[in-house]
């Protein structure tokens, strides 16, 4: 089959979905283009800071994408190109983009509260505390997985390490110029991109070579700092500038595929059970998380994006559109794997999924004059750059969840002894919360990402099911249509709970008891949240029927 045909058909479907299905959802949920947003109502200069749509889309896309839409499709290619493509397209349009847009809309209507706050308002405080623990465990796995991937990338391509480190002060200067010196965005963007190119050149000229352990330690210090800084000084500007790398990579890959005209060499379906990946159901839907639907996105949409939305009318392009852009990236990742022969794919995969992806896109880009080595370095740099942006955001969200859980505990135990209340307040401190969250994550990161990824995928997809449940409950309480959320929610619960059972069995056999504990706790928390939310939905339905 022609790779060009696959690319064009899927991209066309994404465009049509944005126009028609995204537009229909906006009407169903009462999107008000002139509606006032929490960023203006609750402005605090730290977390609630309005950002122009291009800046916020850059932050949002860079945060949700990370290495997920690359790793997942490349790894899942062992099942064949057809199931991978179908899941990315159908999952993205009818599940992932709906999930992201719905989470963002729900947060806007709850004064920028996280999904945990939405559950509190619509289900109850007990459910909120369960969700905070659930989401914190998921974020620990996300940070561990992505820290591992970034460290491996820095070791494999030290040029990307130098450039990525230089991006940090560049972003801080850019943010200071925009938000404290009122520099024009357009002019600042051109200057920032010019310096970004200089950083890339310096990275190619002066690669920093360190061990993986050293990189994990440095990454941990960086994300602790990033998690407590005001969003305007690092998070927003870094993600905005990095987003241009991502857009350039996607555009280069798109043009490269069109001109190179690859033929898909892998079979449409290879196997229903892979020796290492497991059964196609449910593992395909777990392995491909971020490219189709990802619970982490609900935490980004409600945790940081909703607090920075300048106009309510921007929610559709950022929430629904941002996920479709990620789907486009996932399709490019799929093509980078399936145009190879089975043996060629297996050989490249030994260097990791990013190696398969960067080699594939670099090969495609040779069709318009980009030298293969330079192309591969650029793609690897772009992937590591936005994997770091995901780490920035995940660390902040992990800190939020940890703080909020112990703030809730402090409030609940207000009548208890002062020593107990004091210890809870200490744990709710943002610096303490950051150090504990990231310390545990980095400890897990010393395990291979291949071990962490299936558990991360399961937790992440289960989180998506819970977020869909939260948004559906909010819509039910408002008397609004929530049917577009029910079927995806049920499907994701079935997939993820089944996968967790398989993962518990396999990790017991391998002796990975920490991951067994994580899986078991996630399973129990999910069941409890389902029961609590179902009771609320059932009572609401009975009142409506009466």
Automatic annotation (TrEMBL):
Record field: transmembrane: 78-101, 130-149, 161-179, 186-208, 214-235, 244-261, 281-305, 317-341, 361-389, 431-452, 458-477, 489-508, 514-537
Subcellular location: Cell membrane
Name listed for the protein in its UniProt record: Carbon starvation protein CstA
Main location: membrane
One Pfam family per UniProt: CstA
Superkingdom, natural source: Bacteria
Keyword terms, alphabetized: Cell membrane, Membrane, Transmembrane, Transmembrane helix
Membrane topology listed for this record: Multi-pass membrane protein
Domain CstA N-terminal: 3-348
Cellular-component GO terms for this entry: plasma membrane
Similarity annotation: Belongs to the peptide transporter carbon starvation (CstA) (TC 2.A.114) family.
Xref: InterPro entries: CstA, CstA_N
Membrane is among the record's keywords: yes
UniProt entry tagged with the keyword Cell membrane: yes
GO biological process: cellular response to starvation
